[in-house]
Amino acid sequence: MTIWWYTLGSTFLISLIALVGILSLYLSADRVREWLLPMVGFAAGALLGNVFLHLLPELVERKGSFDPVSSLLVLLGIVVFFLMEQGIRHWQAEHTDRGDHMEHLAHLRPRPLDLEQGAGSLLTARPYAAVSLGSDLLHNFIDGLVVGGAFLFSIPLGISTALVVALHEVPQELGDYAILVHAGLDRMRALFYNFVTALTAVAGGVVALLIGAARETFPLYLIPFTAGTFIYLAVGSLIPELHSHGEKHRTFRGVVGMLAGIGVMVVMHFAAHSAGH
């Protein structure tokens, strides 16, 4: 039951991050942009740190080696998330006449971050609002699956994985919120729908635990796949954002954020081992 409480609690807390858009009610868009890039860097560093300091070492310790099956699952995770991201981009572009603008919003680049007040409901919003919510349902469900699988492996691994998923979700959910507002939803409706779709992370965590109860080897396959998805998210989605800004001080802040994210994973690694894990 301990694993259930940890999984349900962490996935619910991750779901609450969907309400990060409430900051736009009190902060200017410029202020949000200032903090976005260091946050992206921090998430990228934490993702990579979790892969190489927690996920893969735990896998090798449990299996005794890093076999070809694990290698293929890491590669599969990279390919699957690449294809999923490309599919979502094309789907969004087909449902809006502002595909370029939507692509930038999905990438969380500061220049087009549009937090202007919408005034409509989901029925009157542009079609890509529903598309964005649909992709969020899948994305958040996978997040929950990943967190649940990590807790099946060990509680320390579950905690570190839940943390990096949460860090990645902050800029992701802010971008999703901006998309909904730009599509025509008023801010409170955008917050509500964003939170409802985020709750699928809890469902993903439950599914992972149920599968793990039926098949004890499930985490041995999910963990390397998760490592691949984290590598892609960091290297393919987040780190390129640190290259997309001309101002040196912005890039520097992003790099500092990335090093800080790695540092947090290093501290958690040594803390777990000193505790006897």
Mean pLDDT: 80
Q: Residue share in helices? A: over 70%
Tell me the number of helical segments per DSSP (H or I, 4 or more residues long). 10
Low-confidence stretches: 97-115, 117-125
Strand residue content:
under 5%
- By helix and strand content, what is the structural category? mainly alpha
Query: Radius of gyration, Cα only, in angstroms?
Result: 18 Å
Give descriptors for this structure.
277 residues; mainly alpha; 0% strand
Describe the structure.
The chain is mainly alpha-helical and 277 residues long. The chain has a domain at 2-18 and 69-230. 79% of the residues lie in helices and 0% in strands. The chain is built from 10 helices and no strands. The protein has helices at residues 2-16, 29-63, 68-94, 99-106, 128-153, 155-182, 187-198, 200-214, 218-243, 248-274. Helix 2 (29-63) runs antiparallel to helix 6 and helix 3 runs antiparallel to helix 4. Residues 97-115 and 117-125 have low confidence and may be disordered.
